[in-house]
Amino acid sequence: MHQDAETTITAYYEALREGESLSSFFAEAPDSIKIGLSERLVGYADIAAGLSEQTATTDDWTVESHDLSVSVDGNLAWFSDRVSMAWTDTQTDSDYEFDTRWTGTLQRRENGDEWQFVTLHVSAPTAELQNPEDDLFSWDG
Q1: Mean pLDDT across the stretch 102-118?
Q2: Residues forming a β-bridge with 78
Q3: Residue 20: which residues within 8 A CB-CB, separation 6 or more?
Q4: Nearest Cα residue to 104 out of 125, 89, 83
Q5: Residue 93 is part of which domain span?
């Protein structure tokens, strides 16, 4: 794996683009969590199964990072990013495209030179909230 958290995150993006296995990026723990656009996976076994299914049924991934921010404190790291994503569902021959928001937590493994996700959350704003002026909680009047 990778020796710093940011490199791990960007390597995950690249593995997604290339259709490679993604489960090794996650901690093999029963409380690891991955929340995607349409699923909530809890525990390494469910995450690995979900990612395997995703890899088997999708193709032609585009993953473009726009605002990656990573903070590290000891053996923990957290990040946020805005990511443009697109892919083809090979079962339905349907194309999808989303502007997404990513947040997550990584932990440095006991060997000290490998970072893995313990949480990963990917979301997309609804069409009604795509623009800053549509902010539901704006305090500017």
Answers
A1: 92
A2: 71, 105
A3: 55
A4: 83
A5: 5-20+31-126
Q: pTM for this structure? A: 0.87
Those residues whose C-beta lies under 8 Å from the C-beta of residue 2, and which sit 6 or more positions away, are 8, 11, 114, 115
Evaluate whether residue 25 is within a structural domain: no
- Predicted confidence (pLDDT) per residue in 33-72, tens digit: 999 999 999 999 999 999 999 999 999 999 999 999 999 9
In a domain, 136, yes or no: no
- Is residue 112 scored above 90 in pLDDT? no
Residue 87 in domain: yes
3-state secondary structure (DSSP) of residue 7: helix
Q: State how many domains the chain has.
A: 1
Distance in angstroms (rounded) separating the CA atoms of residues 2 and 9: 9
